[in-house]
Amino acid sequence: MRELYRANLDRLGRDLVEIARLVHRAALDGRTALETADVHGAERVISEDARIDMLQESLDDQAVRLLSLQAPVATDLRTVVASLRMSSSLERMGDLARHIAQLTRLRYPEHVIPEAVRPVFTQLADAAVEVAEEAVLLLETLDLAHADRIHALNVDVNALHLSVFRAIASPDWTASPSTTTDVTLASRYFERFTDHGLAVALKVRYLVTGECHHHRGADANGA
Amino acid sequence: MRELYRANLDRLGRDLVEIARLVHRAALDGRTALETADVHGAERVISEDARIDMLQESLDDQAVRLLSLQAPVATDLRTVVASLRMSSSLERMGDLARHIAQLTRLRYPEHVIPEAVRPVFTQLADAAVEVAEEAVLLLETLDLAHADRIHALNVDVNALHLSVFRAIASPDWTASPSTTTDVTLASRYFERFTDHGLAVALKVRYLVTGECHHHRGADANGA
Question: Using CA atoms, how far apart are residues A127 and A149, in angstroms rounded to an integer?
């Protein structure tokens, strides 16, 4: 019984890593599709999101079964509850990568992002890919250096997100209203993606140190 | 022991209703503030959001304590896990009402929403208020008629959200790029708000009927 219990907890951890890997893959493919206006790449991100959703459901079922049959306490209980939360965050990251891909598909063969803000979006997409990669490493190793890196990337992304709004407000902005909408949403999707990555990092930090840093979201300015 | 256990489960349910009431209040006050460009009302929504956050944390702590000390199984376990999920959704609804209020404050004394789309936003805001009200009633009574109503409101909101994008894309759209960004975000916030309401409705439906309707979010078109 004890061994089965350990095996089930370990499987929960492995499945979380697996979901994080799929999210990282979605961020990578979504970045390429966005930057090259590649509709096939976008389609792939969109269809692969179903796998993330399925894995999350399976993980949640496992977690509830574990709670039911083995009634973990103390650290193990915290781990199971945190896993439920982290799988939600990862699933949302998959959705957001899908949204970026859907914008790419919607505007194909045009580019979603006008040239004026492409450098900012290159940085946003690179940061999102790195957040996802660091989330994989963090869940694999529980080394909090990866949580620190996610935190730093989040600070960068918030600044980039605001710089997108500044670009839109500047007198040089010549894009059409629909492009302005696309740029606004794409920037928001990247900001939300990395913020969910931060939520994962804070959960792991809590599990490792016992310290709770409440996650209030980084979009506190309403923009 | 048994009585204490029941009392704790009941308290979880009451606290969920209390959070839903605060979310309803935020939706009501946020609507008035948006429609009248009332900076004081907006400030109130923003500061009151901290209470929702605190109540959610307290509910989550209670739920984990209940899992730890009383190891519920079967329906009770499902209820506790669903409560954790619903408190997350309600907390996000509070954040989204706050974001609307933050836009109101940011643009004060101007209106956030230009006249051309005010009728659509009146409908969006009314739907959001009603979703929150129905969530309160649903959590109080577990009467699935309220879940049905939330479902119907969600369908309306998705159509309204798309009509905002159509208005922005029309040749008659004359708003500035920054206003276009505000309108895009505000519409997205309302869409997310009601979608989280739908997530609550689906959880309650699952608890009552045992049927699982997966919630994939309603923003499937990436816009």
Answer: 10
Q: Which tokens sit at A212?
A: 């709770």
B212: left (phi over 0), alpha (psi -120 to 50) or beta: beta
The 3-state secondary structure of A1-59 reads: CHHHHHHHHHHHHHHHHHHHHHHHHHHHHHHHHHHHCCHHHHHHHHHHHHHHHHHHHHH
CB contact under 8 A, B222 and A100: yes
The predicted-structure confidence for A102-144, as pLDDT tens digits, reads as follows 999 999 999 999 999 999 999 999 999 999 999 999 999 999 9
**Would the CB atoms of A99 and B173 count as touching at under 8 Å?**
no
Query: What interface predicted TM-score (ipTM) does this complex get?
Result: 0.93
d(CA B51, CA B44): 11
Among all residues of chain B, which has the CA nearest to that of A97?
B222
Question: Domains in chain B, ordered, with CATH?
Answer: 2-209 (1.20.58.220)
pLDDT confidence bin for A220, thresholds 50/70/90: very low
Residue A193 has pLDDT above 80, yes or no: yes
Q: Which amino acid is at A72?
A: P
What number is the average pLDDT over the span B25-29? 98
Nearest by CB to A77, from B68, B181, B220: name it: B68
CB contact under 8 A, A106 and B222: yes
Rounded CA gap, A35 and B80, in Å? 44
